[in-house]
Each structure stands twice: as structure tokens, then as C-alpha cells.
Amino acid sequence: MTDIYQIPIETQDGTQITLNSYQNKVLLIVNTATGCGLTPQYEGLQQLYDKYQAHGLEILDFPCNQFMNQAPGTDTEINQFCQLNYQTSFPRFKKIAVNGKEASPLFVYLKEQQSDPLLGKAIKWNFTKFLVDRDGQVVNRFSPQTEPEKIEESIKELLGL
């Protein structure tokens, strides 16, 4: 079994890293888009981050343009949009694909660990959320329509609060 902390990802500037620096944290990993009807979920994500980051929560934002081109622009433009409109401060990574041959190895792994009851492994839309415990186990997958505040109890449980 692959260790989630060893999967390569890219920072916004294209630097290859792994999730190694996030060991022993509770992770909420989300594929996002700036031009989607669900984009206002950034506000709820930031509220969760503000409340629980000091307790060990990290929200990892992976913009994705695969769904009706709803994440246009460069990585810098996406970051500026999120900071200006939603005051986000959680880590945002390089734009990725979540489905198909070009899918990010991280999302391939996440989908293998938690499939969707209706879609199987495919990601349905922007703002699909994966919750990872402090041991690196993918413990839940939430649909795009699941508001961030509806995940709060699950996060608190994993944080031991």
C-alpha cells in the first residue's frame, strides 16, 4: 500500500514535494474551482481552517479545471482570486487533473481509498472533499454539495476535540 505522505505533488511554483510535512495532521483535501456555483464554499473552508488549524487541521486546495473549465487562469491568478474574495490562508497547490490519464497521483490514491457510492472512483465535480486522519488513512469522502460546516463534527472527532 502506498503511503499518502510519499505521493509527489507540486506547489504553485512547480516545485515537486510530498505531503511529508503534513504527517500527524488531519487533512481535508479538496479539488476546487474559482468559477463554480460551489466556489462560495471557500468561505466555509476558511472558517474551518481558522477554527481548527491550531489543533492540527490542514486544508489542502488543489484547483482543477476539468469540470466545464471552471478554474481558468494561472495558478497565481487563482491564488489571488481566493485571497482577495475569500481571504483564504490555507495551502493551495498547482492546478491538477483529478480524473483520466493525467490525474494527479494524489487523487488517484484518494479515489482508490474512498470511492463514491454512485460514481465509483471518479470525481463527480469541483469541491469533492477527502478527510485524512493523523495516521494518513483516508477516512471519508464528501460530495461536492456537502457544505464544509457539515464536515466539522468529523474533523473535531479526528482532532480529538
Query: Globular, elongated, flat, extended or rod-shaped: what is the shape?
Result: globular
Write down the Rg.
14 Å
- Given as residue ranges, the uncertain stretches (5+ residues, pLDDT < 50) are none
Q: What is the top-level CATH class of the domain at 55-161?
A: Alpha Beta
Please describe the biggest sheet, giving its number of strands, its sense, and whether it closes into a barrel: 4 strands, mixed
Family: Belongs to the glutathione peroxidase family.
Pfam families: GSHPx
Organism: Streptococcus moroccensis
Protein name: Glutathione peroxidase
Please summarize what this structure is:
InterPro entries: Glutathione_peroxidase, GPX_AS, GPX_CS, Thioredoxin-like_sf, Thioredoxin_domain. The chain is α+β, with helices and mostly antiparallel strands.
